[in-house]
Each structure stands twice: as structure tokens, then as C-alpha cells.
Amino acid sequence: MQKISLKEIESMDKRFRTDLINSLWGVRPAVLVATENSSGQSNLAIFNSVIHIGAHPPLVGLIFRPDSVDRHTLTNILDQRFYSLNFFTKDLINKAHHTSARYPKDISEFDAVGLTIDRREDFNAPFVKESPLVIDVCFREKIDIQVNGTHMVIGELQQLYIKENSISAGGWINHDFLGTIGAGGLDSYYSYSLEKRMEYAKPDLAPREKL
Amino acid sequence: MQKISLKEIESMDKRFRTDLINSLWGVRPAVLVATENSSGQSNLAIFNSVIHIGAHPPLVGLIFRPDSVDRHTLTNILDQRFYSLNFFTKDLINKAHHTSARYPKDISEFDAVGLTIDRREDFNAPFVKESPLVIDVCFREKIDIQVNGTHMVIGELQQLYIKENSISAGGWINHDFLGTIGAGGLDSYYSYSLEKRMEYAKPDLAPREKL
Known about the structure:
2 copies of one chain form a homodimer.
Chain A: E1 2-5, H1 6-10, H2 14-24, E2 28-29, E3 31-36, E4 42-47, E5 51-55, E6 58-64, H3 71-80, E7 82-87, H4 93-98, H5 109-113, E8 117-120, E9 123-128, E10 133-144, E11 151-162, H6 175-178, E12 182-184, E13 188-197
Antiparallel strand pairs in A: 2-12, 3-4, 3-7, 5-6, 6-11, 7-10, 8-9, 10-11, 12-13
């Protein structure tokens, strides 16, 4: 095993350190967050900081850096309270990644990267028409993280839209079948292969695979 | 697309709802969190709520439910301040999943599931000897999430141990090569296939794949 200490990390070239630490924590779900401002100007930004906060009520967190390109997204969420999380598939990686370019505020990333914007009558945020899984979310809580000045925004699911026949009889979603993509670090994209499902673990039973 | 509203979700059978919402947010990194209490009793618990909080300093978050089986882990972290995050590979899925069984407090999950405990002279938490990536973390901040009573614990990387030759020339870690596993929901485990890496996105350039 190769050991790397915090001291060594702190003395690394900035770019090397950023790539190392951003890819360190594994592969995380990649989503496009769609918002709009009070003038109806839409915004679309890629995030890999989606975090499950609770199932009942269904809550989801997103992390925002204080000085990042996603400032339009944060401003829009706090102003408008509604946003959508749009998962994407392998064929959309290039477009999804390109939403991270620093476009001026009056340019919609939907147009710039070539994804189709759509809106629903009953929800005040746009969504990505090509997405196989769209989750409409309403803002609930903003938490300021003291230790480094980042923010966590927590929202509650309002409704979800998923490709037909993607939910199993028991409620579970197979992301290998659905084809959603994960991000490792700032620039790498992975697909998933389901290895196995396990039965609920009990101390007096050996591990049992769900068949 | 199939639409499911919050109202429909709230009226679902509890088990169906739990499986749906837990698998909804995609595939997340799976890690074993190793701790010990003041008597030196070790604990090992599986988590899929690892979240990158920042690269400089390198900070990582974990979500804890108020009433969950991971209470030993939270107590140990708050008491001892040190813990390790142990990624695992395909061959260890059964053992890793089985740490979620509700063992009594005086049983170490290392022994119960058959993973090898090891300790380092310079760090006050155990680790999993079979892991290809171990990150030693020191507690920094506990955040209470108002909206549902969960907690986020943030820690700072102290050192990391990774399988030899797993870091690219630029600092990036390929999790397909390293073989780490992701969890979708409470019971399903996925491996990763790297699809592509992308160059830094610029408004005036088309998306470019990193070759």
C-alpha cells in the first residue's frame, strides 16, 4: 500500500491535489440541476454531490462551494425554491459535462450544450427532456458548513418522472438497467454493472444473495 | 415517462417506499467505517452516504440517521474523534453488507463477518486489512439537520493508504481499475466501468474527450 499523509497532500501541486481529492471518495451520482431565475432565464449545471438525507419525507442534499460556477443555481434555488434533478445516460455525457463551462448569466446552458428544455404546468422549474429520471424538488433548508464555508441545500421531492417499467415489483430501481451515469472527480464518467442484491442482514444467518 | 407524486409516495407500503426512495438518488460510494470505543472495542459499519465537502482542506461528510444501527459508529466518532473509511472490492460485498446486521455492542463486526482488523501505530482507529483504499479521518464538525433530525459528521483526511500504482500521473484515481464498489439503495451493489474522461469545459470550445 502507498501511504500519503495530509502534509504531503498540502504540499502537492494544486491541480494534482484537486484531482486526487476529488476522485478519492469514489464514484458519485451525476445529475443536472435545472433552475430558472425570476425573469424566466433557465440554468443547467452538473453536480456530483447529491446525497440522500431521508426516505420519509424524501429529502435530498446538494453541496455548493462558496465561490463556484454553480452560484447561479444556488441563487435561483433560494429565490424560486423549486428545482429539478435530471439524471443522464451515457450518450449525454459530453453535453452534461459541458454545462460546467462558465457561460455568461444570460446564456442558458440548455441551448449552449444542446439539451432540450421542457416545463410542466404544475411545477416552477424546467427539466431536461432527454433525462430517464427527473426529480422535482422544493427547497427546505440551507445549512452553512462552518469548517470550510460550503453550503448544503436540502430539498423535498415533490414528484418524480421515470422511464416506463424501470421500477421493480418491490420498489427498487436498477440503475444498471436505467443507464444512469456516475462521476468520479471533476472529469470522469462511469456506467454501472449490477453485481448483486443482498437480503436483509441478520446476525444469526450467513449473508444471502437476493435471487 | 411514469409520474409518481409525493402524495402517492406517502401512501405507499412502507417497504416499497423505502426501497424506492433509497434507490432513487443513484449509485453512491460504499464504505466501511471503522471505529473503536474507549475500551478498545472495535466497530465496523457499512455506509453509502459519503460526501465530498472540499478538497483543500480535504473534508468528507457522512450522514447518520437518528435511530439507526450505526449509532455505535456515531458515538465512537464523537468520543474518540478518529475513524477510517475503508473502500471494498467485489469479492468483499457479502462481508461488507453483513456488517449491517444488528450485532450486540460487545461483538466486533470485523470478527462476525470475517474481515481482518488491523491498526497503525500513529492512528487511533482500526482499519480493514483487505481494503484497497483506506482513508484515516479526524472529526471536525457535527451538523444537526433540522428538517428530519439526521446528522452530518464532517471529518478531515489525515492520511490515506491506496493499493500501489493506483494514482495516475495527474493525481486522478480510476475506480474501475481500483475495483471499488457502489451501493444503490440498502441492498444492491454495483461495479463501475469507466466511460470517458473529459477536458475542462470552455464556452467557446466543443466538448473534448481526454485521451
